[in-house]
Specification:
This protein has 4 helices and 5 strands. It is an alpha+beta fold.
Length: 132
């Protein structure tokens, strides 16, 4: 590169700064990730507190083994035992859980779970609890 052009390039490089708004996209993405992480931790904390005080008609959003999602509706609670009715339908996506809420529950086969088994179960993972 000829010396006059090289000198012009060096001067331009010295006085030119990258605008601050160039990094705004990264900041927004970072804030979004932090917000989603915080919300997820809050939901897990709320679920852990609510699991010990389940009430009739509470709806548990659960993930079953094999990435199958469904709902469990609390029929009644007796001491440390929770009796639930499983939703008649299942989904392969967590985003379709709201659609399942309008579907019926199989009340002919009420399943009994101790609260400790709902918490520490390798076949059922409780994602959320909806209390009306």
């Amino acid at each position: 590169m000829p010396d006059p052009i090289k000198l012009g390039y060096e001067n331009l490089k010295t006085y030119t700064k990258i605008p601050l708004w160039t990094y705004s996209g990264l900041l927004i993405i970072g804030l979004a990730i932090a917000g989603f992480t915080f919300a997820d931790k809050q939901k897990k904390t709320r679920v852990n507190k609510m699991i010990y005080s389940l009430k009739k008609d509470d709806i548990l959003e659960v993930k079953l083994k094999g990435d199958i999602y469904t709902l469990l509706k609390v029929d009644h609670v007796s001491g440390n035992l929770v009796y639930v009715a499983m939703n008649k339908y299942q989904s392969n996506s967590e985003t379709n859980m709201d659609e399942l809420k309008s579907k019926g529950y199989d009340t002919s086969t009420i399943q009994e779970f101790p609260v400790s088994q709902l918490i520490n179960n390798d076949k059922i993972e409780i994602l959320d609890i909806d209390r009306n």
